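re: that complex we talked abt at group meeting.

here r the seqs, copy pasted straight from the sheet so there may be weird spacing, ignore it
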Amino acid sequence: MKYGIQLVGVGGQGVLLASTVLGSAAVSEDMDAAMSEVHGMAQRGGSVQCTVRIGQDVLSPLLSQGEANVLLGFEPAETCRNLVYANKDTYVITNTVPVVPVTVSSGLEEYPAVDDIIKAVKSSGVAKLIALDAASMAKEAGNAIAANSVLIGAMSAVPGFPLSKEKMLSILLERVPAKAKDVNQKAFEMGYEAALKCLSPQ
Amino acid sequence: MEKLLADSGRILLLGNEAIARGLIEAGCGVAATYPGTPSSEIGGVLDDVADKVGMYFEYSVNEIVAMEVAAAAAVSGVRSFAFMKHVGLNVASDAFMTLSYVGVRAGMVILTADDPSIHSSQSEQDNRYYAKFGLVPMLEPTTPAECKDMIIEAFKLSEKLHSPVLVRTTTRVNHARGAVNLSRPKKMQKKGVFEKDPAHLVTVPANARRDRIDQLERIKKAQELSEISPLNYITGSGSDGIITSGVSYTYAAEYIENAEILKLGFSYPLPEEKVKKFLQRKSRVVVIEELEPVIEDEVRRIAQQNGIRTEIIGKRTGHLPRAYEYTPDTLKALSGILKIKEGAQPLSSEIKLPSRPPVLCAGCPHRSTFYATKKAVGKEGAIYCTDIGCYTLGVQPPMNCADITLCMGSSIGTAGGFSEATDQKAVAFIGDSTFFHGGIPGLINAGYNKHNNLVLIILDNRTTAMTGHQPNPGTGRDYGGIESPPLKIEPLVRACGIEFVKTVDPYDLVAIEQAVREALDFNGPAVIVSEHACPLLRKKEGKLEKKLYEVDREKCIGCKICLSKFSCPALSVDNGKPLIDRTSCIGCGGCAQVCPQNAIEVKQ
Ligand code: SF4
Ligand code: SF4
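got the structure back, here u go
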């Protein structure tokens, strides 16, 4: 089995950290991993993408269009921009907090209303959508900086996800500073619970 | 990092980390580079571990110096490594071409990291041509695991042939991550003995003529080794035939069914017999490679020389593109020829989203310098000659502070040219590291040849920022157990024959504007050193003393000058008035100085 995760967001949001957590968790479970990361100029506040593929005999560091099992968006416009990696069965997890690009704040372009972006994501055919205000949840957990732990927690709740919740959490905690462990663990749990709630039939 | 130094184990590594590990396992004693994406992270590992493993490592002032340092080690019997991005090999090419004549005693490996799709470069040149051009054998790894193995193999090959060996990677190899098995490192040897051998090493014409014959002998032998190399192998099964190398192999192996693949790891010189036999068994062969048809053209030559009628498909037949890196989806262009795996239908959305190009960070001192320079230049305007670094991002509105960039150091040369060829003012921007790398000859030229309309602004942010904050001569050295003091820029500029030079802090917008005005009025080439440390580096080092700025919504009249003219990414709009994001604002005070109403103030 091969499992593909596309992580997208804005430079500086922690997309890279989330992808290394995935890769390290996979390797520590003796699975193969093939990943692709963004370094260099794009990290200066531009759109960033990372690909993680895990499972037997994965080689390609990139996914083909429509191949992702999970699309994890750290920013709503970036989630929408990268829908091409998803298909109708893909779990799409998105943060709903926008990062407004300078092209918009300096008055050159417009940023659509977040509700419209979420609507657009749904009407593209996404059936399994987990939309979270990761910033508020992280703040509730103790620090807005832990927003990526919320998202990593949410991803660990996806049915059929090849890595266990415990593994994901322990690898995540290895990678955060000692004094931030509690906050990140709480943020992770909150993301996990919120995702379960989003996915359960009302 | 400790994991990377272990004797055994299986760990997740970035391609570049695997390359660094390969150097350790191979016992490479000397390594040198000038940082450049996508190869930079190799240096990031080495500046940390070199002294622990007994290796000498340096950030050289530029790539040709790095090549020369490594070459000296290799002719002294020490395994050595020079690494750089693709365009870095242009800078180092003069040494590279001759090194292939003189040869080496201990193994010498040169890594070129190409950047298809131009993620972080100014071109997507295909450096496999350098192997052919310089007659230097070349290996091309596919995955992080192969990165490590092929570095080790490249040293062995180099020693067998007494030739430097080129290892060519691409962004998707350097920045791929995968599991790598570690083996016990070979004993490190950092010092050798140089034995005089001027008949080979001093390339006066009589010697070089002899070396030329040796070079041809070496490449002939390399050809024989390529023929039997296990790095060139056939895998998969099926009636269709594919020849491929590098990362393209992963797409072919996973997304094409029913095909037999000849995978080339030792790709220059090609294993001609192997290719010939492969062609003879197939009625049609597809060559899958990024960028230029390097392998394809060789395969066509082999077919022609051997009278083989196999149909060869690739770029020359218009099936596959030459521009940009490949992805699994690129292979869809081959449907109808090969059996491409069917995938699920991708989703899409029509909603119009704003673009998000990379930008200068919040509080970036370059933004302040650009803003003030434009004010000083005024309506008359100037030709902005920029260079390679974060500040190339000044090309974007509202700054529009970039009219031409060619290569490292070109800002000064081109500004000199404009100064002579037009009556316009020419303003050049160059970073500190780029100035040391390739700017100094241009500046000597400007002083010597009296390019009087030239103003050079050295954006001295005390680091090599774009590639990940490596040190440079201006920062001094403090890694690998060696310390040296920073080289001062002002005296260096004066020594280049420049009479007007001033150092200013760009966070003081009035002072820098005034200095640029004076420089523009000066009759002669003039230099401003705009000095302020990169806030991103200060943040990483935990040394950033943040001030918090806030917009007074009473005083603010909503003119949005701060947003439209200064465009700091920490500023956004909230109900028609600017809002400062507390987490990203670093308190440079730029927006506050720009505001005509003094509506932005320090809060803490
Ligand atoms: S420049 Fe000053 S007055 Fe104008 S919008 Fe910005 S803060 Fe308000
Ligand atoms: S003070 Fe203003 S210009 Fe400087 S970082 Fe903060 S918001 Fe940006």
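couple things i noticed - Chain B has four domains: 3-227, 232-340, 365-540, 549-602. Chain B is about 35% helix and 20% strand.
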